[in-house]
Amino acid sequence: xxxxxxxxxxxxxxxxxxxxxxxxxxxxxxxxxxxxxxxxxxxxxxxxxxxxxxxxxxxxxxxxxxxxxxxxxxxxxxxxxxxxxxxxxxxxxxxxxxxxxxxxxxxxx
Length: 109
Hints:
- By secondary structure, the chain is mainly alpha-helical.
- The protein has helices spanning 29-32, 43-53, 62-72, 80-89, 100-108.
- The protein has one domain (24-108).
- Helices cover 41% and strands 0% of the residues.
- Helix 2 crosses helix 3.
């Protein structure tokens, strides 16, 4: 089984919901990740790749499609979804605030 599918600690603590991201303004993928760039190696490069592989459709904008694509990309231990999932599992809920613009875009998708 892929490590990606079993990286959840079975002894996890129940965390409170994440509040506030839905009131973030909707923005482009690049702008939504400006505060996250220092946390993830080569993030700008992968954003560019995601946008090259995504197009708008009847249901998703190009930005929404690229946000989903970026989340599913694999690129090692500091890959995007790993860093985001770690942040979402952290008890320090206010530390998620830099992720709010991206979470808004992802939720909209």
